[in-house]
Design goal:
By secondary structure, the protein is of the alpha/beta class. The protein has a single domain (7-209), classed as Aldolase class I (TIM Barrel, Alpha-Beta Barrel), CATH 3.20.20.70. It is 40% helix and 17% strand. It contains 8 helices and 8 strands, in the order βαβαββαβαβαβαβαα. It has an 8-stranded parallel β-barrel with strand order 1-2-3-4-5-6-7-8, surrounded by 5 helices. α1 (19-29) crosses α8. InterPro entries: Aldolase_TIM (IPR013785), ThiamineP_synth_sf (IPR036206), ThiamineP_synth_TenI (IPR022998). It holds the Pfam family TMP-TENI. One of its GO terms (biological process) is thiamine biosynthetic process.
Length: 210
């Protein structure tokens, strides 16, 4: 079974706060998993970012996962990809990247969770938990009940795959979320936009490990 971190940190496009700087701060704060999420650059710029971030991650022993852009596999030291397209064929993607690469997917309903698990996904970002400005969308908000129901249904069906809550999560949500039986959480805005990046990361890390 592949290593899946319980606290996944996601970079995003922020004016005057580049992805490399975000990754450097996250690693220094103790991040063991960085998801590079940049949807605004062409391949050359993406690769320059990814190669620089990969060096930082290598120095800290941090797993680097790239959002989408699976065509860049093998062009930098990337350990995995997170595919946001909820209709993606993971059986095909798994054949494309091989067994060693970590593949995560996004889902908003239990049917898609089950499909992704059957097609070879290693973990699932399940959300949104709440309204999020980082990744605006029209998907239904899951809330705590959505995660409680999901974990119950998956257990009843003997489907075992790490489920990570994502979307609009605040520090005060973590305890109740983890009590639903999910595996972990993925965080972006609540850390990136905090007054103190290091303190915010530490708060989430401590809350999820409690």
């Amino acid at each position: 079974m592949k290593y899946i971190e319980k606290l996944q940190y996601i970079t995003h496009d922020i004016p005057n706060f580049g992805h490399l700087e975000q990754a450097q701060l996250a690693c220094a704060a103790g991040a063991k998993w960085i998801q590079y999420r940049c949807l605004s650059k062409a391949d050359d710029a993406l690769l320059a970012d990814i190669q620089a971030i990969a060096e930082v991650c290598d120095d800290w022993g941090t797993t680097l996962v790239v959002t989408n852009h699976i065509h860049l596999n093998g062009k930098a030291d990337i350990q995995g990809f997170h595919i946001e397209d909820m209709d993606a064929d993971f059986s095909l993607l798994r054949k494309q990247v091989g067994d060693d690469i970590t593949l995560g997917g996004s889902a908003n309903d239990i049917e898609n969770v089950i499909r992704l698990a059957s097609e070879g996904a290693d973990y699932i970002g399940y959300g949104p938990f709440a309204t999020t400005s980082t990744k605006p969308n029209n998907y239904p908000i899951l809330g705590l009940e959505g995660y409680k129901n999901a974990t119950k249904q998956l257990k009843a069906l003997n489907v075992y795959i790490p489920i990570l809550a994502v979307g609009g999560i605040k520090i005060y949500d973590v305890e109740a979320l983890m009590q639903t039986g999910i595996y972990g959480i993925a965080i972006s805005g609540a850390i990136n936009l905090a007054d103190d990046f290091n303190e915010a990361y530490s708060d989430f890390y401590n809350a999820i490990k409690a």
